[in-house]
Hints:
15 helices, Four Helix Bundle (Hemerythrin (Met), subunit A), mainly alpha, 2 domains, about 80% helix, single chain, about 325 residues
Amino acid sequence: MSVGSRPLVPSRLGPLGSVHGGRTRAARTTVGAYIALTKPRIIELLLITTVPTMILAEDGMPPLWLMVATVVGGTLAAGGANAINMYVDRDIDKLMRRTQSRPLVTGRIRPRDALIFAIALEVAAFVMLAVTVNLLSAVLALSAALFYVFIYTLWLKRTSTQNIVIGGAAGAVPVLVGWAAVQNSLALEPLILFGVIFFWTPPHFWALAIRHADDYRAAGVPMLPAVATPEVTSKKMTGYTAVLWTLTLVLWPVAGLGWLYGISAFVLGLLFLLGCVRLHRDPTPQRSMRVFAYSISYVTLLFAAMAADVLIQSGF
């Protein structure tokens, strides 16, 4: 065969390769869209609190299988709740620049398919936790999902400035799930940790909402920064952070934690509080985003310090 004829082979295979390549890309896009429905970044934050709480409950390292089962079950439950949230909020998501690329807005997934997917995740989460962990953890995970959907998404989000305050309780339940997975009961320590996440949520979320206040106004969502001045919002953030800081220090003696946790809780909380105070003095979107970024580092480092403290004391 001559050199000039060689391109004939790839030219015949080209369309076939393009078809397969197109199908592969379409499949990847669809899978990615379904993953996006679950809001993976939010789930990451939930898991950051679950595993260290399990370590505290075990007073050491829990069995690997138990951690995996709890994390997977919690991920399914949170992912299902987030998907239902997107299903309900698809009308306002298209009005907000921050959410206009979500799968139900762009049409990558049909609403009916998204709802079926979300319900399937919730069923799978409950069954998995009930069978592999215990019934209490399954009930707690399901209750968090129902609270997030019915109390926050369907009721408070569009009607009250307290939406993220009360609704944020759903995001605090994973610490209860983690403790229940190990102990099959609840105690004072996980209730304090619940309070920690409960009071962390408003300053964390409002810092982001200050930056996107115009989006919430356009969608008619009464998120506090959309209906109040940045000064008022940052003042409330400071108050919630002060309570949060206090709770993290109360946990220190109650849970019998050591100096690693105590010093970490003190320093990290002080920095968080100072960040909110500075935001009150200079309430700009740029500074609010710095507070938002720090709030994520804060909760990650705080729970990591708690886990490390327990493991060091247990001689792991």
